[in-house]
User: Fold this.
Amino acid sequence: MLTRQILAKTAAVLSAAAMLCLCGPVVAQAQDEGGTKAARELRAEYDTAVKGKTIAYLPISLAAPITAEWGRMIEMEAAWRGMKYVVRDPNFDSAAQLQALTALVNDKVDVIIVQNPSVTLLAKELKRAEAQGIHVIQINMASNYKSDAFVGADWHEVGRVLADEVVKQCGTASGKSGKVQIVQGELTAAASVDQVGAMLDVFSKDKNIKVVSNQAANWDANTALNITATVIQQNPDLCASVGFWTIMESGAAQAIRNAGKIDSVKIYASGEGSQLDCDQVNQGNFTKFLNYKSTEQGHDLVQAAVGLLEGGLKPGTKQLAYFTIPEWVDKSNASGANCFALPKAK
Assistant:
């Protein structure tokens, strides 16, 4: 009986060995051919669609941490994919930005990534770009023209989340004055239009909330400081200040600190998540800020470009949206990945 069991096991081992001998040449052949056929075909199709294509980046200015971070991510990821990267810096000059966009369209680049200073300025040229066969991706601030893709914050959501927090701290149940200051950016920018609309809608549902100032600082910290200095003087019992960009709102925070009210006024902003933003939180100038993660947005911009190129659709055929998940940053998490490093001086 024991002998039969030994013979059976031996036969099984020999059979397995024979199978390995038969399969060996097949495995070696597959490796010699460069791996699986599916993987080779997938990469070849990807390279055909993407490699060598030109991706152009046109922000309002490269001087801000948010636009520099988008550019860093686009350039890095484009290089890895074998794409050509082109950047134009109008340096806050709207006329120069429009001229740069016109030139990029005439140069027939493959993809244009653009940040709109207003909802109207670039709309006609964006439409012309797609008519010329160029994919257009708008970043964070959209125009009235819906292009192939939008990557960025959902400003209605951002405004609502900011307003909900203000109501929680200053609304009927808070026992506080309910006085709120809003510091907008550019009045005709989508980020301002949509955030303020959502905020006022939320505020209208709580009778204790009183918007004592709703002014545009045009993304400038010094202007925000001057506006807020007047507001805090006229309203020493101000409950909260809300800004539509962290760098701009840092000016408002400084005015509130100068007035000796930094511990009594809640200060909020939406922002990109740079080290400067986290410093404001850790230094006690911001209560917290709503981070829309510009590093992640930079990655999504290139992903959107690749998707459009691989999809093979004619530009202007379909409008896609890649919205960023907003995340509150306070002293408990104002560090690490929530605070991207500022670019080093060249």
